[in-house]
Amino acid sequence: MNLEIFMQGFIPLALAHFIALLSPGADFFILVSTTSKEGKTSGILTASGIAFANAIYIILALFGIMLILNNPLIFISIKILGAIYLLYISYHLITSKKRELFNKNKITLKKNLLKSFIKGFLSAILNPKNSIFYFTMFSISLNDNIPFNYQILYAIWMFLAVLIWDIFIVILINAKQNREFIQKYSNKIEKISGIILAMLACIIIFNSL
């Protein structure tokens, strides 16, 4: 493996992807709701459903980008549009209002595990923003110097990052003191994430012109 070429695509992709994971979205609130109401096991199954739905979009985005990678005009246009989409996300993060994240009722331990998995899967697969997001992720990080086997490793990384991060969130939410911390600082995290995404988007646009 040529580490320099691998990192050339991996660093911007992993950074933008992780910052986006830090920002509460629809999947985050599904995790919060399920874990708060039904406990850790249901939360982990919901996280797994979300991750596998994301895996489908990751695969579709990877092969979609491969089809246009050899057409510079289309590829650069999509890269710029992807950066604009990141600016759109960053605007909403920066202007977001503080809100109540957690259900204050006691946990009711429901153990319908298949239902929890399906809930997470449907939440992610029916969100059209996920397909746009992953298409954007690959467009900003790939070029014709990066071999396909490296791109497969990027895809596996993103799937594992979603799965591990969401399970980590579930474990955090399960402890009351952590909920208080998340509630207190989540809005600040959103705003900081928005600023970093905006900076990445501007760099991408500058390098594409």
Q: What would a concise description of this structure say?
A:
It is a multi-pass membrane protein. This protein is mostly helical and 209 residues long.
Describe the structure.
The chain has 209 residues and is mainly alpha-helical. It has one domain. Helices cover 82% and strands 0% of the residues. It has helices spanning 3-22, 26-38, 40-68, 72-94, 113-125, 128-141, 148-173, 176-208. α1 (3-22) runs antiparallel to α6, α2 (26-38) runs antiparallel to α5 (113-125) and α4 (72-94) packs antiparallel against α8. The longest helix has 33 residues, at 176-208. It is globular, with a radius of gyration of 18 Å. The two termini are 30 Å apart. The model has no long low-confidence stretch (mean pLDDT 80).
Features:
mainly alpha, 82% helix, amino acid transmembrane transporter activity, LeuE-type
